[in-house]
Design goal:
It is a single chain. With about 280 residues, the protein is an alpha/beta fold. It contains ten helices and 17 strands. It folds into two domains: about 90 residues, Elongation Factor Tu (Ef-tu), domain 3; about 160 residues, 3-Layer(aba) Sandwich (Rossmann fold), CATH 3.40.50.80. The longest helix has 11 residues. It is globular, with a radius of gyration of 18 Å.
Length: about 280
């Protein structure tokens, strides 16, 4: 059993978990992930590894469905049923020159180990993060510490640029900013848009795909994606792929395969929605 040594809600629906597991903590490299199970009845949930320290590793988990809700409703001192990792190929790193990184939602945290490693390798790091509103932004100070330039975009304009990562990216490029490499982590739509933006400028671009995933070892085939017309598995060949070669239309369709079932499961699952609980009590601000 794997102890949760620290757990709290960073911003609404995004929870920080620090888990004690020495083997993962000592072996994990930037870009890799681990699969968690809250109990023996849970789905296997893949989550990016954000940081490691001594015998623990840190993750940010976004509450989206029943299985992620089970995990975020656990408390400090509780123990997960299973933790498997590190999984996936490490991110490609090197001394590229000027690198732009983009992160949104869970990707705000997930982009951190890449920014840190690229900075340590002597790159000039430009980081852009996005959220729907300013109260959903997190991990900003940590990212600023490993970035030469730092930008924020919010959908409602409450902080930074009114828009998304791609809006900041377009402005920087049109203003004459030069980039030698790009990496993006977050929602599929954002990664697709950013890849389309960098393509005509021939900026090498990597994206970390968040596909449907089951076993994490390449055996089930759930996470298959088409890259350069070839079938790849995000769990063992990725999660990082060339953003200019991903078949984005196919990926979008595959990711929505179980959308209705996921919505029904979440609505009927025997768990308490904390936001609704607060709303009914009059405490929701």
């Amino acid at each position: 059993m794997y102890e949760i040594v620290e757990k709290y809600e960073e911003v609404p629906n995004v929870h920080r978990l620090v888990i004690r597991e020495p083997n993962i903590a000592t072996k994990a490299q930037p870009g890799q992930f681990a699969i968690l199970m809250a109990d023996e009845q849970s789905e296997r949930v893949p989550i990016s590894i954000v940081d490691t320290k001594d015998d623990t590793f840190t993750m940010f988990i976004l509450e989206l469905g029943v299985s992620s809700a089970k995990i975020v409703n656990m408390k400090q001192g509780d123990r997960l049923e299973a933790v498997t990792g590190p999984l996936g190929m490490p991110a490609t790193l090197g001394k590229y020159g000027r690198v732009v990184l983009g992160g949104g939602c869970y990707g705000i945290g997930a982009i951190y180990p890449l920014a840190k490693a690229l900075k340590e390798q002597g790159n000039e790091v430009v980081t852009i993060i996005e959220a729907r509103s300013d109260y959903l932004l997190y991990f900003q100070e940590e990212l600023k510490a490993v970035s030469d330039e730092f930008f924020v975009a919010t959908s409602d304009g409450t902080e930074g640029t009114n828009g998304h990562v791609q809006d900041v990216l377009v402005k920087l490029i049109r203003d004459g900013e030069r980039f030698d490499h790009a990496k993006f982590i977050g929602c599929t739509y954002m990664m697709m848009n950013c890849s389309h933006i960098t393509s005509p400028y021939r900026i090498p671009t990597k994206v970390a795909l968040n596909t449907i995933m089951l076993d994490g070892t390449g055996m089930c085939g759930c996470c298959r994606v088409s890259v350069e017309g070839v079938t790849k598995f995000a769990c063992v060949d990725g999660p990082e792929f060339d953003g200019h070669q991903v078949n984005w239309d196919e990926l979008m369709k595959r990711k929505s395969s179980y959308l209705m079932e996921e919505m029904l499961a979440y609505q009927t699952a025997p768990h308490t929605c904390k936001a609704l609980e607060k709303a009914y009590s009059g405490d929701l601000k």
